[in-house]
Design goal:
Length: 229
């Protein structure tokens, strides 16, 4: 199945990372409230065990902690899907877990969020501006050429497609489907690539791609992507 999905991708068919976020979820029918989202983001709700998002993700979604992603100006549909992916569905484990299936901090926070909370906070974040002065950037000159090659051309002999095909040449991504990677912290990107490869972040397309990449490949493209603008 994974090989078939990859073939479809390489053939140039439009393959989405899961269903289009938001279109198949009845919970998305709630009307989002950015002001309420800001309150939750800044203050949290300790009565429900919801930590203030700003603690880890920074002012207006601009994280200064390399292990935590920048969320400012991300499409709210994409962010809403990611929050839902941290929540187990029935007897199935969550789509997103930490290494070796261990729960992450989001695994304890996301289940406490209501559908309305998710819509509110993600709409708020989508309205924020990326602070490029605080954004992640490339740090390894030694891997720059390798990262650039993978981003622009992929790795032909291992059937690894160019990252730019989905995440765009400048790393801006495709709203609602593929995330912006430009300015993301390279440490965070690398960790997510490894989680895709191990299957701890379930995504058949990204598993198929990263499973053909070495650790140096992943590190090089993560660092290059962070430096895009």
């Amino acid at each position: 199945m994974k090989r078939a999905l990859s073939s479809m991708f390489m053939a140039g068919s439009l393959v989405l990372v899961g269903a289009l976020p938001g279109l198949t979820h009845a919970q998305d029918a709630v009307k989002p409230d950015a002001k309420a989202g800001e309150q939750l983001y800044v203050n949290g709700d300790m009565s429900r065990g919801v930590l203030a998002c700003v603690t880890c993700h920074g002012d207006a979604g601009n994280s200064t902690i390399p292990a935590n992603p920048n969320l400012a100006a991300m499409p709210h549909e994409y962010l809403a899907k990611q929050l839902r992916d941290f929540v187990p569905q029935g007897d199935k484990r969550a789509v997103r877990t930490g290494a070796d299936g261990a729960p992450s901090i989001m695994s304890t926070i996301a289940p406490s969020l209501t559908p309305q909370d998710i819509q509110n906070v993600t709409l708020y974040l989508s309205h924020q501006k990326m602070d490029w002065d605080k954004a992640g950037t490339a740090t390894s000159e030694a891997s720059m050429e390798r990262g650039q090659h993978i981003w622009r051309a992929g790795i032909a002999d291992r059937q690894v497609p160019a990252c730019a095909a989905c995440h765009s040449a400048n790393g801006a991504g495709l709203p609602g489907e593929f995330p912006r990677l430009a300015g993301q912290h390279p440490e965070y990107i690398l960790e997510q690539l490894k989680l895709f490869r191990s299957g701890d972040r379930a995504n058949s397309i990204m598993y198929d791609i990263t499973s053909r990449m070495t650790d140096p490949d992943l590190a090089a493209v993560a660092d290059f992507a962070a430096g895009l603008r």
